[in-house]
Amino acid sequence: MRFHGSSRVPILAPPVLALALLVAPAGQAQPGGGYRRACIDDSERFCPDAGGGRREIAACLQEHQGELSEACRTSLAERQGRREARMEEVRGACGADVEAHCPDTEPGRERGRCLRDHASELSEACRETLAKHRGGLRPGGRRRP
């Protein structure tokens, strides 16, 4: 590990720094530091040229899934399980809202953007579930800071 000056502050490679700075979704605990900590060595080993963005690192780790450490694979699987549980809860609470306001949208960012655009028209259950998992919506459908 390289250090900056005499202060002994470590200098981190861009992908490692980006992995360390990833933010968990609001309200989601990261037991033991979460996948970021569990996968930092794998990220350094397999993804030194991933560009430093979280999507690039995630894609790189996915490409090397069979080569990852047991700790990283386990942590990523647990993270995926939590994500799927959140998505199932959102689908249950917002299914009718999606049909009413966003029927032709693709799941993911496009649908999330549509739901935010229709925030004032959504059912209370949908708004509460989205707030629980994404930090809520401001008037006009934008996320709260």
Q: Secondary structure elements and their pairing?
A:
Blueprint: E1 2-4, E2 9-11, H1 14-21, H2 34-46, H3 54-63, H4 70-101, H5 109-117, H6 124-134
Antiparallel strand pairs: 1-2
Helix pairs in contact: 1-2, 2-4, 4-6
Structure, explained:
With 145 residues, the chain is mainly alpha-helical. It has two domains: 1-68, no CATH class; 83-145, no CATH class. Helices cover 57% and strands 4% of the residues. The protein has helices at 14-21, 34-46, 54-63, 70-101, 109-117, 124-134; strands at residues 2-4, 9-11. It has a two-stranded antiparallel ribbon. The longest helix has 32 residues, at 70-101.
Summarize the structure.
The chain is mainly alpha-helical. Helix content is about 55%, strand content about 5%. The chain has six helices and two strands; from the N terminus they run E-E-H-H-H-H-H-H.
Give, in spatial order, the strands making up the sheet with the most strands.
1-2
Span between termini: 35 Å
| Number of β-strand runs | 2
User: What is the 3D shape?
Assistant: elongated
- Class derived from helix and strand content: mainly alpha
- Strand/helix succession: EEHHHHHH
Query: What's the alpha carbon Rg, rounded to whole Å?
Result: 18 Å
Residues in helix, % = 55-70%
Tell me the domain tally.
Answer: 2
Range of strand content? under 5%
Low-confidence stretches: 1-32, 138-145
Largest sheet: 2 strands, antiparallel
What is the average per-residue confidence, as pLDDT, rounded to a whole number?
75
Q: Number of helical runs?
A: 6
